[in-house]
Amino acid sequence: MACLPRPGSKKRGESGAPLRAAASALQIPSVQAAPRHIAPEQPLIVPESVRVTDDSVFTAADWSNVLKGYSSQYVEHDFWVDESMIEGTIPEDLEGTLLRNGPGLFEIGGIPVSQPFDGDGMVSSWAIKDGRCFYRNRYVRTDAFMAEQEAGRMLFKGAFSRGDPAGGGFFNPFNLEIKQIANTNVLHWAGRTFALHERDLPWELDSSLHTVGRTDLDGTVGAVGKPNFGSHFRVFVEDDGSKRLVGTSFDEDLRQGKLTFFEYNEQMELLYRTTAELPGAGFGFFHDIAMTENYYIALENPISMDFSTLLLRYMTGRACLAECLKYDPSKRTKIHLIPRPGRSGALKQVALECSPFFCFHHVNASEDSAGSVNLDLIAMHGGVDFSMNFSNLSHEFFAKPPWRTALTRLNLSPATAKVRTSILAERQSLEMPCVAPSLVGRPHQHAYFQSSRVAQASNWGAPQDILKVSMPPGEVAGEPEMQRWSPGQDSFCQEPIFVPRPQSSAEDDGWLLAPVFRAATSTTDLAILDAQDLRKGPLATIRLPHHIPIGLHGSFTQAYLGPQPGTEVQPRQHDIRQGVSRQGQPLYSS
């Protein structure tokens, strides 16, 4: 593993003066408001003081542009990216494959899904080698996807479906199973590729993204409770350079939750399976995980079941399952530290509490010399509202506290069970974080996000920009440094992925790969940015001739999953409306 400098040291592209000059050019404040510490019992409200990046607000026209990104992509592609589609130069030493997953189909049989997260999963890949790129995309052929394509109509209930999506006269409210959609993340490990969704087992794909089938990971997952494997995972690099894959399975009832951690080596052999019982956590909404050298980390959100909605509206088909979950500010947010097996530095399992907030995603976690754990995450201190869907969302959503995010650091003491909460950045609304992969579970200085372009106290917006936040780990003192790249008012960046440069020695020496949806042309680009200096703009932009719907998560593998450069491959297009098939299955024509 490359030797990294001590976090906190200055590196190329981080001096304060160039940052302030760039900030001025972008019309954003050159000084970030100082981090704020939250007293244990103090609820956070987004401040009313106006700290704006510019005079803009997120408008109805902006929201209309967002919605263009949630139009179905019916065509599956395989093709070499022509030189005419590349602006700039792909770095010669960038080699591997970017894999992305997200909903790709937003209607079935002409009937729209209620919420984009219910869309069937479509995986895309950019295989990059020797300055060339091979692109392909493919729908995950889950059993549910195949059955609905054959029937030409909805058959299965999603998390945001109301009543019987098949339109039948009988609705069984006690059936809480939801549709297989495999639309949240994608992982390549031990030579195998998996499409992930947290309420299902993984769906294995081959190197061409054809669906192999549903898998329990060689029998390691299916025997634990309700078989599922979470959509978020962590890869931890040990001191000897070997890697560990950590994933989870969650099983719940009305009283408690059980969170099982699976730790695999690089050959996909299960090393450890650890189950933590979490009393009262049945509705904790454990979406993401973090880890350190000694701990697995799970955050229990302050969510309660609204039994009134469940009995009066869900049971009668007038509310979806998600609408029965309510953010409960009377509860505390809990952080569970679960000792990793085979480690000597962890104390016993402990749950720490702090003022309520909701969190989907963690940035990273690490331990310090005193035994404290620092957890950086994306917090919604104003709560969350699960009733949002296509029918009731508008640009006015971005003027309300729920869903507005802030980069937040928790300093956790396992010995005393005390939590110190600090807000690092709250001007821009940030999401989809990443750090250098070699520093997962270890102290980091640089983190990368998609962020809103609009950043007023009373108005924010959908993710459009890429933001780099630089701050030493540990106790918060001073102000973070920021760099921002904006692709334009009608463009929307998605989750950035950090790829280290081969033989790099600096933490931020590498590239950021980020898809960008262009509303003006309804196409998608892949931007390749210098992670040390976002101000330079993309080193290369791969401009696809079609759009990829705004997606969720992805990962980068050093494995090159494409034809060898120089190999002639006939471009392929297939419209799924003409029928879908998979190995061992008939062709379904709709």
Q: Which terms would index this structure?
A:
590 residues; 6-stranded antiparallel beta sheet; single chain; Carotenoid oxygenase; disordered N terminus; mainly beta
Structure, described:
Residues 580-590 have a biased composition (Polar residues). Belongs to the carotenoid oxygenase family. Residues 562-590 are annotated as: Disordered. InterPro entries: Carotenoid_Oase. Its cofactor is Fe(2+). Residues 1-33 and 40-54 have low confidence and may be disordered. The chain has 4 helices and 37 strands. It has one domain (16-578). The chain has 590 residues and is mainly beta. The strands form 9 sheets. Strands 36-4-7-8-2-37 form a 6-stranded antiparallel beta sheet, with no helix packed on it. Strands 3, 31, 32, 33, 34 and 35 form a 6-stranded antiparallel beta sheet that branches. The chain starts with 15 loop residues before the first helix and ends in a 15-residue tail after the last strand. 6% of the residues lie in helices and 37% in strands.
Mean pLDDT: 87
- Helix tally equals 4
Q: What class would the helix/strand composition place it in? A: mainly beta
Strand content: 35-45%
GO molecular function, one term: metal ion binding
GO biological process, one term: carotene catabolic process
Keywords: Iron, Metal-binding
Protein name: Carotenoid oxygenase
